[in-house]
Design goal:
The protein is an alpha/beta fold. The chain is built from 6 helices and 8 strands. The radius of gyration is 15 Å and the shape is globular.
C-alpha cells in the first residue's frame, strides 16, 4: 500500500444516487410535500476526502427536493443532476461535460433505475441492502446499508483501490482541516 498519499487510481469522478444510498430510502411527507431527508453525518467527510486526492464528486438522482438541494450545496458536490429517471443519458452528459471516459467514473447505486450504469462506469458500487439485481451487477458491494455512511465507505474503497491506505487517504485532511470544506 502507498503511504505517501499519492492516489494512483483511474477514478476521477464519483457519482452517488441519493435515496437508498445517501439516505436510507424513506421519504417523509407533510401537506406541503417532501418535508425532509435524513442524511448520515459520516458522509460529509467523503467529499473533501475525495477532493483532497483530485477526485470530484456528484449526485445523479431520480428525485429532486429542496432538502437534497440544500445538502448538495452544503457538502459542495462538484456535479448535481436531480429529478432524472433516464440516468444513462444524464450520465453521458455529465461524462462529456467533465471530459472523462467511462473508466474514470464510479457510481454508487441501489435500485433497478441505476442498472443502466452497471457495466458502463469504471466502478459500480452498491450498498449491502441494494436490490438483488443491483447486487448481482455491482463491481463491489459495500458493507454498509444505504444512509448509514455509504458515501464515506465508497470514498475509502476507491482511494484504497487507487493505492492508498487509510492513513495516507486521510493525511491531507488531518494535516490541515482549515484548507478543506469539511461539513458533517
Amino acid at each position: 500500500m502507498n503511504t505517501l498519499g499519492l492516489y494512483s487510481g483511474s477514478v476521477r469522478l464519483v457519482l452517488f444516487d441519493v435515496d437508498g444510498v445517501l439516505t436510507e430510502g424513506s421519504l417523509y411527507f407533510d401537506a406541503e410535500g417532501e418535508a425532509f431527508k435524513a442524511f448520515n453525518v459520516r458522509d460529509g467527510l467523503a467529499i473533501p476526502l475525495l477532493r483532497a486526492h483530485g477526485v470530484r464528486s456528484g449526485v445523479l438522482s431520480g428525485k429532486s427536493s429542496p432538502a437534497l438541494d440544500r445538502r448538495v450545496q452544503q457538502l459542495g458536490f462538484d456535479v448535481a443532476v436531480t429529478g432524472v429517471i433516464a440516468k444513462r443519458e444524464a450520465y453521458e452528459r455529465i461524462k462529456r461535460s467533465e471530459g472523462l471516459s467511462d473508466k474514470q467514473v464510479a457510481f454508487v447505486g441501489d435500485d433497478v433505475i441505476d442498472l443502466p450504469l452497471a457495466g458502463l462506469v469504471g466502478c459500480f458500487l452498491a450498498p449491502k441492502d441494494a436490490h438483488a439485481l443491483v447486487l448481482g451487477m455491482a463491481d463491489h458491494v459495500l458493507s454498509l446499508r444505504g444512509g448509514r455512511g455509504v458515501a464515506r465507505e465508497a470514498a475509502e474503497y476507491i482511494l484504497s483501490a487507487g493505492g492508498l491506505d487509510l492513513e495516507a487517504a486521510y493525511r491531507p485532511l488531518l494535516d490541515d482541516w482549515g484548507s478543506w470544506n469539511v461539513v458533517q
